[in-house]
Amino acid sequence: GYKAGGLDIAENTLVPFDEEKVVSAELGLKTDAFNRRLRFNTALYYLDFDSIQVRAIKPGATAGDIQSFISNTGAEKRTGIEMELISKITTNFMTEISANFADSTIDAIDQIADPAPQLTWSLALSYDLDTPIGMFIPRLHGFYRDEIYSGIDVTSRNYNAATIEDITLWDFRLAYIPAALPRLDTSLYEKNLTDE
Questions:
Q1: Are the beta carbons of 175 and 186 closer than 8 angstroms?
Q2: CB under 8 Å, gap of 24 or more: what pairs does 179-185 form?
Q3: Torsion of Cα atoms, 151 then 168 then 105 then 80, to 10°
Q4: Distance CA 123, CA 95 (A)
Q5: Quick check: helix, strand or coil at residue 173?
Q6: Can you give the pTM of this predicted structure?
Q7: CB 141 within 8 Å of CB 122
Q8: Are 149 and 114 in contact (CB under 8 A)?
Q9: 101: closest CA among 117, 115, 77?
Q10: What is the pLDDT of residue 72?
Q11: What does the pLDDT average to over 58-73?
Q12: What number is the average pLDDT over the span 47-57?
């Protein structure tokens, strides 16, 4: 695959940048077991980027004048694994687990760090509670994202503000389906239970 090149403006001049190219490969497995009560999906992937397009920073004519424009830098190789496990432990109780781990190798000294998080995961637990007045479905969902580098050039690594800290979020939802109106679904949500 590729991302097309183009033109950007720096110091009132059109600055050309080349296309970004990537060669990718993926090997995956998808399985259903125990009468479809257990599903496991996983994939290994490899990405080989060349001439990555990044936002470059260049000093202008004065100390407060900073030019920002798109430029090409070196290459990056990224490998990773994705996993998903969905399990219906009982007729009413379901768990969903997913995770992604990625590792990057950058071949250019002036390349900024990969803005993608190295690790993410999510966990969801839900239970179908059938009662005479209808179905109640409580669901707890957790999500984790590793820290992200958000700097726009190589010198940004010297500042803590250039890194967005890792975060874990927990959400809760309670759905209700009345027995008399099975097509009606009402839900209550609570986002960010731990106030992160």
A1: yes
A2: 179/131, 179/132, 179/133, 179/134, 179/135, 180/134
A3: -140
A4: 7
A5: strand
A6: 0.75
A7: yes
A8: yes
A9: 117
A10: 78
A11: 72
A12: 80
Q: Which residue has the higher pLDDT, 143 or 3?
A: 143
- The C-alpha atoms of residue 73 and residue 66 are separated, in whole angstroms, by 19
Determine the longest span between alpha carbons in the chain, in angstroms: 76
pLDDT tens-digit readout, 108-164: 544 455 567 899 999 999 999 999 999 999 999 999 999 887 766 555 666 666 788
For residues 51 and 6, give the distance between their C-alpha atoms in angstroms, rounded to a whole number.
13
Tokens 């984790």 — which residue?
A: 144
Residue type, 54: V
Burial group, residue 22, by CB count within 10 angstroms (0-12, 13-18, 19+):
middle
What residue type is assigned to position 43 of the chain? Answer: A
**Strand boundaries in 107-133, DSSP class E:** 119-127, 129-131
- pLDDT tens column, 70-100: 877 777 888 999 999 999 999 999 999 999 9
